[in-house]
Amino acid sequence: MRVLVVGSGGREHALCWAIAASPLTTKLWAAPGNPGTATVAENVHLQAEDLAGLVHFAREHAVDLVVPGPEGPLVAGLADAMAQAGIRCCGPSAAAARLEGSKAFAKELCDAAGIATALWERFDDPAEAIAFVRRRGAPIVVKADGLASGKGVVVAATVEEAEAAIRAAMEQLHFGAAGNAVVIEELLEGEECSLFALCDGTDAVFLGLAQDHKRVGDGDIGPNTGGMGAFSPVPGLDPEPLMSGFIRPALAEMAARGTPFRGLLFAGLMLTASGPRLIEYNVRFGDPECQALLPRLRSDLLPGLIAACDGELSRFDLRWRNEACVAVVMATQGYPAAPHTGSVIDGLEAAAAVPGALVFQAGTRIEDGRLLSAAGRVLTICGTGPDLASAREAAYAAVANVRWPEGFCRRDIGAKLAAR
Question: What predicted TM-score, i.e. pTM, was given to this entire model?
Answer without folding.
Answer: 0.95
